[in-house]
Write a structure and sequence with these properties.
The complex is a heterodimer. Chain A contains 11 helices and 27 strands. In chain A, the strands form 6 sheets. Chain A has an 8-stranded mixed sheet, with helices on both faces. By secondary structure, chain A is α/β, with parallel strands linked by helices. Chain A has 2 domains: 350 residues, 3-Layer(aba) Sandwich (Rossmann fold); 83 residues, ANL, C-terminal domain (GMP Synthetase, Chain A, domain 3). In chain B, helix 1 packs across helix 2. Chain B is globular, with a radius of gyration of 12 Å. Chain B has one domain: Non-ribosomal Peptide Synthetase Peptidyl Carrier Protein, Chain A (Orthogonal Bundle), CATH 1.10.1200. By secondary structure, chain B is mainly alpha-helical. Chain B has 3 helices and no strands. The longest helix of chain B is centred in the N-terminal third of the chain and has 15 residues. Classes of the chains: A alpha/beta, B mainly alpha. Chains A and B meet through strand 25 of A and helix 2 of B.
Chain lengths: 464, 81
């Protein structure tokens, strides 16, 4: 294991082997990676942040990326604030993580004005005489994508965050792109892949339309592109999808069903297509690259890279060097791992022959008169219909059975006439009846122009 | 199509989809003897909401459970007034 070496080397030092022309791009700016090896984005404040617990609260992803690279090994703690966090929760997060410094690229919000150290981060890199010595084993705090209340803070080490990243293979130059925000686990993985691989990285800007983002990804020659299945379905609906030609297409964060894998295969016939299974708590667990949904059952027997996977009551439990260390939450500190070191993923699987398939989340089960349904298993069937691009299955209250399932469906092309919609509705229901027991067949179907995708890149789900 | 005919039409359709046989429907036939089970009735109510734009059974918290086919139809007829 190379853990000791990885921990000893802060991220900045690992930029030294980057390709000479490697850059981090967003819509407004670009930063040459080589300039950052001995330069700073922090306007002379780097030394003031030594040993601090620093909140990274930037508007842009680019400035967050620069600050994270510079502060690894310097700060005691980095709390990464995604852009969609409710400002009302800021106080609790700052207190819970004992934050005593903030890095931002805009006016410091009033809730943070009292912090002892405030630093501004910009994409203009100023040469640095000598980077501070550092030597901190920086703790990285990420927020979980929970739905209500103050998000949980999950602590990682850089060694854990990078445990699943293979060493650089010096072949053709790599340009990473991601539909994720790098301030969430899935996006941060891509930032770290770019840093460790000496690659360029194309980031999206706040409020940037999908088409504009795709055009920029194309302009920078993106070779490796990552997002959730919902991100990809949305991209596949954009005419600009034809402009990009990635060599590697990566999905994670949601169940990659066969329909989305097939659609990506059709769009990118020559690309390697992989779906990774990862979560903020469990880290990157595995990646599947055979183009098929689910994962081979043999992964349970032979974990790679020290990862051990088991199924308990239909639910995946993970022990992994990539898993988070612990929750950071004074009042509500349930252990992250069980006594054997396993993280309960909350992801339910079902074995069919030599393969496991994801069926849904333990918390997302819909109860229909005592029978259980995972919305995701119904969506996976609906999404296989040739005219369906994506779908959301949700519970609808019923006094007769407690709930029924109903489906909101986005078509690959909007239907022209109402009569066509009625026929299509019948056809999709017939399709579902052929593949599902009747309590799982949607009671009603609505055709919608689009489905809401949350800031996490996942389909926005609500309860009953 | 009248409300009653719409309901009968949709009942026949749900029964067909669920592989059930409908009994001859009179107003005083108990709903659960109609041939539809509770899942079938739940699905019927969801479909009728699409067709008639109303669900008389989930709009209020104190639901009057319809006992007969006649009660069921009346709930929709009253709901639209």
């Amino acid at each position: 294991m190379s853990t000791a070496r990885t921990e000893a080397q802060p991220l900045r030092a690992r930029l030294t082997g980057a390709a000479a022309d490697a850059c981090f791009f967003d819509r407004a700016a670009n930063v040459r990676v080589a300039d950052l090896v001995c330069g700073t984005s922090l306007q002379g404040r780097l030394a003031n942040l030594c040993g601090r617990a620093v909140l990274i609260a930037t508007a842009a992803q680019l400035t967050a990326a620069l600050a994270l690279i510079e502060l690894d090994g310097i700060a005691r703690r980095l709390l990464i604030l995604p852009p969609d966090v409710d400002p009302d929760h800021l106080g609790a997060l700052v207190a819970g993580a004992e934050i005593d410094a903030v890095v931002t690229d805009r006016t410091v919000p009033p809730q943070l004005a009292g912090l002892p150290v405030r630093a501004v981060c910009t994409p203009s890199i100023v040469p640095l005489a000598a980077p501070p010595r550092g030597g901190e084993r920086t703790e990285w705090l990420l927020l979980t994508s929970g739905t209500t209340g103050v998000p949980k803070m999950v602590a990682h080490s850089v060694a854990g965050l990078t445990a699943a990243i293979a060493p650089r293979a010096a072949a053709e130059p790599v340009v990473w792109g991601t539909f994720y925000d790098i301030r969430r686990y899935g996006g941060l993985q891509i930032l770290l892949r770019a840093v460790l691989g000496g690659a360029s990285l194309v980031l999206s800007s706040a409020g940037e339309p999908v088409a504009a983002h795709l055009s920029r990804l194309a302009r920078h020659g993106t070779t490796h592109l990552s997002g959730t299945p919902s991100h990809w379905r949305r991209a596949l609906m954009s005419p600009e999808i034809g402009k990009i030609a990635p060599r590697y297409v990566r999905l994670s964060g949601e169940i990659a069903d066969q329909a989305v894998l097939d659609a990506l295969r059709a769009a990118f016939p020559h690309a390697a297509i992989g779906h990774a299974y990862a979560s903020t708590e469990a880290g990157v667990v595995f990646a599947v690259d055979d183009g098929r949904a689910g994962f081979p059952a043999r992964l349970l027997e032979s974990g790679r890279n020290g990862v051990v996977i088991k199924v308990v009551d239909g639910c995946l439990r993970i022990r992994s060097p990539g898993a988070a260390l612990h929750y950071v939450d004074g009042a509500n500190s349930a252990p992250l791992r069980d006594s054997d070191g396993f993280v309960d993923s909350g992801d339910m699987v079902e074995r069919q022959g030599e393969r496991y398939f994801f069926v849904g989340r333990t918390g997302g089960i819909i109860n229909i008169g005592g029978l259980k349904v995972h919305p995701e298993e119904v969506e996976a069937v609906i999404n296989r219909h040739p005219r369906v691009r994506m779908s959301l299955v949700r519970p609808k209250r019923s006094p007769f059975t407690g709930a029924v399932v109903v489906a909101d469906i986005v078509l690959t092309a909007p239907s022209a006439a109402a009569a066509d919609e009625a026929d299509l509705r019948d056809d999709i229901l017939k399709f579902c009846r052929g593949a599902l027991p009747r309590h799982k067949v949607p009671a009603a179907i609505s055709f919608v122009p689009a489905l809401a995708v949350a800031a996490t890149g996942k389909l926005a789900r609500r309860g009953v | 199509m009248s409300i009653k005919l719409t309901i009968m039409d949709e009942m026949a359709r749900v029964a067909r989809e669920h592989g059930k046989t409908l009994a001859p429907l009179h107003d005083d036939v108990a709903l659960l003897d109609s041939g539809l089970d509770s899942l079938g009735i739940a699905v019927l109510v969801a479909r009728l909401e699409d067709r008639l734009g109303l669900d008389p059974f989930t709009t209020s918290d104190d639901v009057q459970f319809p006992v007969t086919v006649g009660d069921f139809v009346k709930a929709y007829e009253h709901g639209t007034h």
